[in-house]
Amino acid sequence: MALYAELHRHLGGSVVPRVLWRYLERSSSKLLSRFADYSAFEEFFTRSRSTLDEYLELHTLVESVQNAESLPYFIYRLLRGAYIFENLAYLELRYTPYLRTPKHLSQSKRIDKMAEIVEVVGQASQLQEYPIVTSQILCMHSRLPYEVNKAIVDLAAQNTKYICGIDVAGGDSYYADRLSEWISLYDYARSLNVKTTGHLYETTAGCYPELLPYLMRIGHGIQIPLLYPELLKDVAKRGQCLEVCPTTYLKTGTLEDIRQLKLVFDRCFDAGVDIAICTDNAGLHNVRLPFEYENLLTYDIINFQQLQACQDAAFRHAFAWPYGQRPASLLNGLLKPDPMKALAMRDN
């Protein structure tokens, strides 16, 4: 029974270690030579890192094997797991299409190839056997030049069939030197009616209030309630939603204990700021969305009523969810007995 929405999942981090290992085996990848066996491979991918930069290096490795030919293999297995094991009804996949194009090509040719990558991901996501509503968020990247990032915004505006918004990723500590550039790109995106989110206020080095007015959702954003709670009033006024990914902050060394998130949730609920609970990199973490829910409940970070509020918020802030209600509400309507039919059955 598909009931949940996932708003923040990276294509590069969504591949579970076992699936990636089998792909590398089948393709006789040289990467396997770095590991003695699968156990060593899994431990390498799922262990915690000291910093966000160190953690993001894992994406570079996965991106190197994700291309137009291999993406259908990974996406099929991603959606199968999301539907069967996570009960997802809605999934937004985010990634940087430029980083899935052949490295030997020139920049202009790689930009041209991005549309093909979007088409491959879009086609591969249309699976009748696993009916999840999917859409793509294209990530601009902090280490890519302006021309590439602008082309990513243009592609998002041109292909609304498969793309529902844009993001900026690549490490939030790298935005500072190009802040005016990011502002202009987001302003440009909004002028094209492209929906926006962005990795912001994830770490203490990624706090840029100048970017907040251009975002419809905030990727992570946990440092706002932790360090700058005075900003929550404006976040609520703008109707922005935080995409909180609990396991990530332990894996990147951003937080020492998951219970530190209680202050995040408490201050957001008090200020009327919505939170969508997400996985970020479910494959690299070896976790699924229901585990994130259970973990927050187990540590008394939220209660069941607050969990439901977060689940509702995820559908309400989803960029491409086509219905006015979440699936549970639709299902309740189907299961609600018709009083006239019930009366007729009783009379018979």
Automatic annotation (TrEMBL):
SUPFAM superfamilies: Metallo-dependent hydrolases. GO terms for cellular component: cytosol. Its EC number is 3.5.4.4. Transmembrane segments: none annotated. It comes from the Bacteria. Its cofactor is Zn(2+). One of its GO terms (molecular function) is adenosine deaminase activity. This is adenosine deaminase.
